[in-house]
Fold these 4 entries.
Entry 1:
Amino acid sequence: MINKFLTIVLILTGTALFGQQQGKYFFTKSGHIEYTLGGNWTGTKSIWFDDYGMLMRTLTESTSTVTVAGFTSTTAEKKLEIRKGKDIWVIDLLTNTGSKSDIGLQTGMGRNMTQGKSDEELHQMERKIITDMGATITGYETFLGKKCLMFTWGTTKFSQYKGIPLKSEVTQTGVLSLLETAVSFEENISVPASKFEIPDNIEFQQSGGLSEVLKGLESSGEYQEQEENGTPPGLSYERFEIATKSLNIPGFPYFMSDNSGGIYLTSYAKSETEQIIIFMENEGRFYEMAQGGEGMIVESTYSLDGHDAVFINITHEDDGTPTNSRSLLVRMPEHQAVLYIIASLPKSKSELEGIIRQIRL
C-alpha cells in the first residue's frame, strides 16, 4: 500500500496539475506569460521560463476571499517561485521567508520520458497523461493565436498549449471560484538570466516537501500499522469521496481521490511543493498519531465541534531535514474513524478547521 501511496504523491509533484513533464516542463523552449486572476481571487501572475521550463520564475500577487459557514476571510499573497533544474525556491515576499526543495528524483524521471521525442510524440504523451489522470479531452480552441488542447478534470476546465495552461477555470458547487487567464504570451524569446536570480535578504529553510514528510513517516513505522487498522468501519469510500472532492480551497484545485491499502484519501494540489491531502481511516489511528513523535509537535489538543481534535506541527523528517508542514486530526466515533489533513505548507489551525468544516459526511 505504501508504494501506491507514495506513487500518488510523486504524481502530484511530477505533473504539477497541468501535464507538465519533468525534464521538459513545457514543450516550447522559452517564453513570458502574463495572467489575470478572477473568481474568489483577484490579482496577477507573471511567468518567465527558459530551457523548456527547467528554468522558471513565477510571481503571483493576489487577494483571495472565501466564505465558510457564514464566516468570510481574506488573504493577501505575494509569492515568488524560482525553479532551476532539480531545485525549487518558494518565497513569501510579504514576510521575506521561503523554502528550498530538491525535486531531482522527479526531474530525472521526466527527462528520461521526454528526451529525444518529437513535438508530435510529446503531444501524444501529453494527451495520454491527461486521460490517464482521469481527465476528459473536449477538443481544441485557438486562444492568443495558439492552438490549445481543451480538457476537463473534475470541476476544472483547462485550455493548454504545449503543456502550458493558458486558461483554467475551477467551479465548485456551481459557483466560479478560481479563474486564471493569460492576457499575453511571448514564445521562444531571449530571457535574461537575471530573471532566475534568488532575491537577497530571504530567510530560507531546506524543505523536502510533502513527499519527503510521508517517506519519513514510512521509515518511522507511522504507516506500517494502518494495514491492521484499515478503513473506517462506519463510512463507505463512496461517501468519503463525494464529501471531499468539491471543497473550496482557494488556489488548490482538486486533484484526485483514492481508496487502497486501508486508507481513503482526497488530494488538492497547487504546485510541486504546495499540496493538501485529506485522509480517513480506522479510529484507532487517532490515538497513535495524537501522541506526536519524532519531528511531530502536538501544538493543541482540544474539542472541534464536539469532536476530539489535535493540531500538529511537522518540523522535520527522520533524516533531520526541516519541514514546515501542518496536520489536523479529528476523531469521529460516529464513523469509527479518524479524519485528518496534512498540508505541505504552514496552514494555520483555523485554516485547516475551515476545510474540515466543509466536509459533510
Entry 2:
Amino acid sequence: MFKSLFLTFFVFFRLILPAQNSPYQKKSMEVFNHMKSGHLSAINTMFDTTGLGKLVRGQSMQTIATALESHGKIKKMLRYEEDQEGCKTKTAQYIRFKNDTVVLYILFNEQMQIQQIHTGKAVEQPFYILKGYKGLAEVTDLSTSFVSRDGVKLGASISFSDTSKKLPVVILVHGSGPNDRDETMGPNKCFRDLAQGLSQKGFAVFRYDKRTFAHTYDMKPRSDSMTIYTETMNDAVDAVRHIKTYTFIDTTRVYLVGHSQGAMCAPKIAELEPRLKAIVMMAGPTRSIVDIIPEQIEYLAGLDDSISTAEQMNITAVKWMADKIKHPDAKAATMPLMGANLYYWKSFMDYNQVATAQSLKLPILIMNGERDYQVRMTEFDGWKQALKDHPNVSFKSYPELTHLFIEGSSKPGPADYDIPRHIPQAVIDDIADFLKLH
C-alpha cells in the first residue's frame, strides 16, 4: 500500500509561482495560441476523454467558443499563474480580449491532459498566498500517496516541521463533493492552512485527495455501489493505517480532524479505527444531509430577498426528491438528488452520527462558525444538547467565521468564499491546544 516518497520538499510562507516555462505553462500556452489563431480543433485533442471526460470536453469547448464570441478578438496575455490542486494542476491566463479582460482557467490531470476549462472575472489576487502562523519558521510539505483497500490510488501530502523526534499526527478528512487534499474553494485552501498552522505547532499533518476528485472520470461516483463508507469513511480509516508506516510518526498519538461531511463521519471513523486518540469535528451536522440540502437551496434562493418563479420551482423539486428518498418504500429508480442516487443517500440516512458520538469514550472537540449558512448554529446547539453529559466533549464557536472557518464580510453566502482569506490563528491554537491535552 505504501508507494515510494518523492524526495522533493518545499517550504511554506511564500507564494507558489510556476517554474519558468513549466510543462503546464507550455501546455497552457498551446491552448492560448490555438485560441488566438482560431484552431479550436487542436484544443479538442488535448482533453482527457475517459468516462465523463467527453461530456466535460464539450462543455469546455463551448466555454472557449462563447468567450471568443462575447469578448472579441484576443489581444494578448497579461499574466500567468499555476497552482497545485491535489494531484492536478490548475493554470490561470489573464487574457486581454478586444472588449474585456478575462481569466481562462485550465485544469490538467497528472498526464497533462485537460480535464476542464472555464472562465472568470479578472481579479488582482493570485490563486493562494501561503500564510505564516505563530510557531516554527519553516514547514516541509512532502508529496506522497497511498492505496485504499479497494485498490484506488490517492495522492497525498504530509506536512511537518521537525523530525528530530517522533511527531503526533493529524489526519484531515474533507467535506462533501470532489475535494482535493487542500479543500480548495476558490482562492481559499482551508486544509493547506490547517496543515501549515498545525505543523508549526509540532504536529505532522496528513491530507489526501478525495477519490471523487482524484478519479473524477475513471470511476463511477454515482454508481449503485457508492455509499458514505466507500466515499469517505473507508479511505479515512485507510489513511490512518497508512500513516503508521512513516518512521517519524508517533503511532500512539494519531488524531483526526474532519470538516463538514468529514466531521459528520468522524465518530464512525473513530469507531472503525479505535487507535485514534481524539477527534475534532469542524462544522459537522447532527441531522441527515438529505434534510439539510433543501434548506440550503431555499436559503441561497432568498439571498437577494426575493425568490423567482424558477427558483421556487427548483426548491419544490429538491424538496420533492428529498421526500421521495426518505420514504420507506422508495425505489432505486427514484430521481437522484444532487446527482446521487437512492442507494447513496440511504447510507447517510442509515448512519446516526449523534448516537455514534454518544458511544465514544475518546475526547471530542466540536467547532462551528456562527456565520455558517451550510451547517448552522442549530446543528452546533444540537451537538451540545446531545453530548451535554459527556465530560470528554468540548465545544467552541466563532462569531465571525463561515463554513470554511474564514472570516466573512457580508450576508452569509457563497460570496464569502470568493475573497482570499485564511483560517485565523485562534482556530489553529484551539485545535492544537485541545489535541496536546490528549
Entry 3:
Amino acid sequence: MSDYEALLRRVLSLVGEDKREEIEVEVERRVSEDPRLTRLGALYIVAGELGLFEGLRQGSSTVALSKLVGGLGSVNIEARVIGVSRPRREPPVVYLRLGDDSGVVDAVAWGDAVSRLEAANVAIGKSILVRGAYTRERPDGAVEVHLGEHAEISEAGPGLPPLEHFFAELPEVFEARGTVDFKAVILGFSEARSVSVKGEAVGVRDLLIGWRGVKAELSLWRDHVGLLDESSIGKIAYVAGAKWSPGGTLSTTSRSSIFIPPLPPQEPVLLKIERRLPQQGMLLGITQDGVERVYSEDISPGQLISVREMRYTRVGKGWAIIPLEYEPAHVEAEPRPKIQAIGDLRAGMVDASVQGEVFSKSPTTRMKTKKGETDFSSFWLKDMSGSIFCKAWGEAVKMLEEVREGEQVVLHFVRVVKNPWGEREVYIGEESLVAPSDEPA
C-alpha cells in the first residue's frame, strides 16, 4: 500500500467512505493547479482544510520530511536536530535544521515554541517529535517547517539516523547549490575584519577548513565570528546550513550552526621540509595529504618531523602551517606530494596542487585593475582528466616567464575560482609556486 493510499484510508475513516470521490477530485484539482505538489502533499492540504489533523494525530502518524509541501496547516514530524541557531530578535526566533532518513528541512521556532525548545533541552544531535507544526514554501521553492504557538515538542524514540549521517565530507559539497551540511577539520583563522552591508558594519572572519588534503575557506559572519577560538584548531566541525555563493565562496548565514563533537585528538602529522621559499621564514613542506607552506625560523630543509600541534596562519591570500609542538621523526617511507587531477578541481578550493601540460600560453600583457596597471599572463593546463584555464597576475607572472608550451609543470598553492560563465579557472597568485614537474614538489 502506498503512503497516499494509507493516508486516504485514515482520512476516510474520519469522514466516511462516501466522501472518497469528492476528496480525490479535490486532490487532483490541487495537483493540476500546482505541478510541484504530489498527490500525497495535496491530500495533506485537503485533510488540513477539513480540520482532520486532530483526528489523524490520535494515531501514530508522522510525515517524512521529504514529503512535506508548503501550505500544510497542522503536521507531525519526527526528526534529528542537526543545526540550531541562537535565539534572535525580540520576541525570540530560533532557526533549526532537521533531518530524518528521507531528507533535511529548515525549521523556524517563534514565540512560546522557543520556550518549549528550551524546556525540552533541544540541542544538536537530539531527536524530537513535533506535533501541530505548519509549513510554508519559501521564495526559492524550499519547504520550511514552522513551530508556532500551538506546536508541541517532545523527545522522539529511537530509529532516526545518527547525527554524522547528515553531514557530507567537505570535498562532496564543492559547487553544490543552495544550503549544504558538511564536516571538516578546522585548520586556522584569519584576523576578524569589518565590512559594510547596507550601511551597517558587520564582522567577518575567514576560517580555513580541510579534509584529507582538500582545503576551502568558510567566511564566518556576524554572531559566528566569535564562536570559535584557537582551541578549536585540529578538531572536526559539523557545519549545518552553510551556503555557497555563485562565485564559489562558502559562508555562514543567520540560520547556520557549527557543532564540534567530542572526538579523540588527531594523530601527529608527518612533515617533510623540502626547500626554502622566497618569503622570509617560509618553507615548502610535504605531508601525506599534500604540499604546505610552513613558517618557522627553527626548521631547515631536509628535516622530517612529527608535528603534534600546529595552526595555520594567513599569508597574503594563502595559508601557512606554524608548527607549535614537534619532534624529529624516523620512518622508512617519507610522505610524497599529493597532486589533484584537473578533473577533480572544484571552485572554492584553496592552496591546491595540480600538474599538467601547458598549452595556448598567452604573452605577458598589461591590464588595468582597480588598484592600477599590473602584468597578466594566462595559459591552459591539461592532463588525462581534462583541461582548465589558468590566470596569473602581478608578481606571479614572473614565475611563468621560463615556462614554454608543451612543458609539464606543477602548480602549488593555487585557488580554483568560477568565472562569470560558471566555468572553473585556476588563479595563480604571488603566494603560489610554479615548478617543473620532474621536481619532487
Entry 4:
Amino acid sequence: MRDVKILLVAFLFISASISGCIGKEVISEEVDNENLIIDELIVPDPDKYECMEFEGWDRCWLTYFPENINLSSKSPVIFELHGWAASSFEMRNYTSITSLADDVGAIVVHPEGLAIPNSGAFGENEESWNSGVCCGDAKALDINDSGFLIKLINNITEEYPVDENRIYFTGWSNGCQMSQRMALEASHLIAAVACTSGYLGFTDDSQYSPIPIMEMHGVLDEIAQYTNSGRLTFFEEDARTIEAIQNGAVENLYDWAAFNNCDGPIIDSNEPNAVYSIQRFTSCGNNTEVALFTSFAGGHNLYVNDICDDISYNFVWSCWGTQGTFDTHQIIWDFVSRYSKNESITN
C-alpha cells in the first residue's frame, strides 16, 4: 500500500509539472551574456499584430523571429518600413526579408503606418508615414511616427534578447523616406540605415550624430524619379514643395555626405557592375560612410517579386521586380551589418 501511495504522489507531481507547461509556446534557455538570463521567452506569433496605444492611436507591428535564433547571444534587429498604401503583411510578402533573417539570425520588425479615413490627404485611408514632405494621412495630420518608432525600438530591446548596438532600419519608398528621417531623429539608437526608392524629406539634424546611410535607387523609377521627384509631387499633395521637386538620388547622396561631414566634394569610391553601381563617400564623421546604389534598369520596385496585384496606384508604374538580377536584401545586409553602435566592424 505504501508503494502505491508513493507512485500516486509521483504521478500527481509529474502531472502538475506537465499541466503547468501546456498552452505556452516558450523558449527556455539560460543566456550567459552580460548576466542576462532568459527563463521563458514567449516568441510572438509572426502572423498576428502586436499593438500599443501611442498618443491616442493604436499603433501596431509584426515581429518575426528567425528559425535559427541563437539565445546564447543577443540578436540584431531589422526594422523594415512599408511604402505608402502597403501594410506590414504586404511589405513582408513583397520583399521576403524573412528568408534573409533566417540566414543571418536577425529579428525582423514590421511596424505599420496609420490609415485614416477623411484625413483630406491624397489617397486617404492608406497606410503611410510622416517622413517630412510626404506622405498621405500621416503627413496631413502630422502624426508623430518618429516618436512611435522610437518607443517601439525601446520596447523591443527591453522585451527580447536584442543587441542594442545592432539596430538597423530599412524600407521602401515612403518607408525609405521614414527610415532616413529616423536616422536624423534617432541616430543614438540606430546603427545604420539602408533603404530603397525614397529620398530624405526631413532636414532637422539638431539631434543627429553621423551613422552609415545607403539609399538604393533605380534609374527608371516611375514614382520617385532618379533625377528628381517630379512624379511624386504630381500625385502627392503634401510633397509639392521646391525641395521635393529639386531632389534626386544623387542630390540625396550629397545631402547625406554633408550631414555626415564626409571629406572632399566628390565621391571617393565607385564599384561598377553590369547591372548596378555603388558610389560612396567612405571618409565621414564617426567612421561612417554614405552610399548610393544605382540600378541601371531598376524601377520603383527594387525587390525581386512583381507586386502589381491589389496595388491601388499601379496605373502610374510598372511594379515589376528585379527578376533576380541582384539580391536587394543581401546588399542591404552586407552594408548595415558592417556597423555596430559600440564599434565599427568595417573591413
